[in-house]
Write a structure and sequence with these properties.
Helices cover 42% and strands 22% of the residues. It is α/β, with parallel strands linked by helices. The chain folds into 2 domains: 1-52; 58-294, no CATH class. Strands 1, 2, 3, 4, 5, 6, 7, 8 and 9 form a 9-stranded mixed beta sheet that branches. A hairpin with a 3-residue loop joins strand 6 and strand 7 (237-243).
């Protein structure tokens, strides 16, 4: 910042070089000196705040009691109505043939072995990634489509300053998957997925906690749409969650292997499509609204809350 101020001051003084009035030159110097002082104070304040945050205790999302999640983050059950779960005829999808084949191969190759976390992870990988790939292939000829910017990423670290149990803390954790969409100036996220560590485990309160963190982060950077989807799954039972703009949530559960496979695929497709729609909105906004521009740190504003690993 000081480099910019020095250059600006030099340019102005060069322009004013022919003016003999010393008072004018002193006034220019005074203004820029004040600007430098304020800049240094702001930088120091940021460093102090960051230093204080680093000293705060850390609270793991997994340590939160399931019944405390709603109270801790100020969210309530009962939001969204039927809208998030209503599937129109155009939104219905069949299970891709290659996905059926892959899951069948998994079943043959692992037949009789325990359905543990590693196997569940393989199944979830296949279902999520093939669903997104199918949508991208469907519009591959349209290079301008916003869905091309949508991507799944694994293991997203989250850190959010929060007040818990009447104390300031850093709530932290790692989601197993997150759905990101990219504009030229921002990275955004509207879906978080939590993998159950064993078959039959729910994990949806943990997913809700991560959703509430993302919901808060999107509000902090003043996004118009701060709604968030979540999925808690063991690859067989799929619980879809939705947190609306007002902080109210609702959910639907479907079971793979009981005739609801197409509903699961359709819901994943619907969420991906919404991410693409949000991406298009951000693209349009970025051309006219300075609020979506990168922060001075060089990172998108949302990335201050969430840290995506390179995998």
């Amino acid at each position: 910042m000081e480099v910019i101020l020095n250059r600006a001051q030099a340019k102005i003084k060069k322009i004013l070089g022919k003016i003999a009035d010393n008072a004018v030159h002193k006034e220019v110097d005074t203004v820029f000196n004040k600007a430098r002082t304020e800049s240094r104070r702001a930088i120091q304040s940021q460093k102090t705040a960051q230093s204080q945050k680093e000293k705060w205790p850390t609270t793991a999302v997994t340590s939160l009691h399931p019944l405390d999640v709603s109270n801790v983050f100020g969210i309530k059950e009962g939001g969204g109505g039927e809208n998030p779960w209503k599937l129109t005829q155009d939104e219905l999808r069949e299970v891709p043939k290659n996905l059926k084949s892959i899951l069948a191969d998994y079943a043959v190759a692992t037949g009789g072995s325990p359905e543990n976390e590693a196997l569940m992870r393989c199944r979830i990988d296949a279902i999520l990634l093939i669903s997104l790939a199918a949508q991208k292939r469907a519009i591959a000829r349209d290079s301008s489509s916003s869905i091309l910017s949508v991507q799944f990423q694994c293991e997203t670290d989250m850190r959010l300053p929060w007040t818990y149990d009447y104390k300031r803390t850093i709530v932290s954790g790692t989601t197993d998957y997150s759905l990101w969409y990219e504009t030229p100036l921002e990275m955004e996220c509207n879906l978080l997925v939590v993998e159950a560590k064993r078959k039959g485990a729910s994990g949806y309160y943990q997913a809700l906690a991560y959703m509430a963190m993302l919901h808060h982060a999107r509000k902090e950077v003043r996004r118009k749409d701060v709604s968030v989807y979540g999925i808690a799954t063991d690859s067989f039972t799929w619980t879809f969650l939705y947190l609306d703009n007002s902080g109210k949530w609702s959910g639907r559960t479907y079971h793979w292997g009981s005739g609801q496979e197409s509903l699961i695929i359709s819901m994943i497709h619907k969420i991906i499509y919404q991410a693409a729609s949000l991406s298009k909105q951000e693209l349009e906004m970025s051309a006219t609204n300075i609020a979506v521009k990168r922060s001075l740190s060089g990172n998108s504003k949302l990335e201050g809350f969430f840290h995506r690993k390179n995998v």
